[in-house]
């Protein structure tokens, strides 16, 4: 086994399954590029997940129900739908034959975060990912940006569905106001970045441009789908980032998103985030520059930008600089073991109770990263300092011990170390695993080892 094959499966993939390192060793980069070249479609584990419109319609119906006793089962059904979706998504990551592509799905979903912290969208977060993110991870950034921005889940999550231009028909009649959330996050998080050169005036102008981008409610046809409401749209010209937008209804927003996708600051922001995610918390400037150029030259084609990343020498450096997030740790452990890795639930923990019905979520709840539960629109952090504090490390070790106790008598941890890490595993880790007094302790030592905790 070659070190580059181990890097391909662990740094760019989601962790090696038995046989993955061997499969990648003849051409590690080609093994990854082949995953970019084909779209496998929706993973089998996600077949049967309802669409976002169905989930949003059910959410609206539950909110409309006045009788509390009648509302309870509706709400529980929506919570159960989210848990089932999230478990399916986790299983899809463990089972995928295209781990680089699945990693990109997770990366871009985090970039364009929606969260269960808003009950209005909680049951529709995985459908949102299926509809707005998955089809575009190797396509043009502009297409993903449009799909995300006009998606009903994003419009509801960031309150644009109820944003009214102050001088619009509805704004005057109902005294409803402008909501700037979507405009702010589009500039700060999704496109230009916090240092992208925009002002508060630009935030407000983009919010005005996007008034009318809304969601069909119960009184409308096709509840839960995108709907442009002309009576909410702010009339008149707008000036965004120094460019004038003549009054054009929904067309203003379409043009603004195209321009934002092509903005040099967006290229730099995307390049920096990709380099940080795949290479190091402090990404090499030369890599960022190469990705930025690739983004510009390809008109934001994310497949080409990712291929450029794969051809950077720094991306294949032997040192594993990235600490796995809890999701990455759980998924890579599942891929290494190929079996149920989820420990028993502590009945005293609310999040764990919520995850009890779906075993695939237990470990994520224990480690503090339930799917689509980021605390803000900025998404989950992507730097070691946010994941390796003293308490978090104790939780990781405890979790590794629990997995070892559950599975240790069924597996050979030395074989797992070879299949999962190959040349990544150092002599100290190999010796510790081999000399462990039991298979359970050997497996716990392997999962807790720096080589397994990093990628």
Précis, in short:
This protein has helices spanning 3-12, 20-24, 28-37, 52-64, 68-95, 99-111, 125-133, 141-149, 152-157, 169-174, 181-190, 200-209, 250-261, 264-278, 285-297, 302-310, 326-337, 350-355, 362-367, 390-407, 413-421, 427-435, 439-448, 450-453; strands at residues 213-215, 226-228, 238-240, 243-245. It has 455 residues and is mainly alpha-helical.
Report on the architecture of this protein:
- By secondary structure, this protein is mostly helical.
- The protein is 55% helix and 3% strand.
- The protein is built from 24 helices and 4 strands.
- The protein has helices spanning 3-12, 20-24, 28-37, 52-64, 68-95, 99-111, 125-133, 141-149, 152-157, 169-174, 181-190, 200-209, 250-261, 264-278, 285-297, 302-310, 326-337, 350-355, 362-367, 390-407, 413-421, 427-435, 439-448, 450-453, and strands at 213-215, 226-228, 238-240, 243-245.
- It has a two-stranded antiparallel ribbon with strand order 1-2. Strands 3-4 form a two-stranded antiparallel ribbon.
- β3 and β4 form a beta hairpin.
- The radius of gyration is 23 Å and the shape is globular.
- Mean pLDDT is 94; it is low at 344-357.
- This is DUF1800 domain-containing protein.
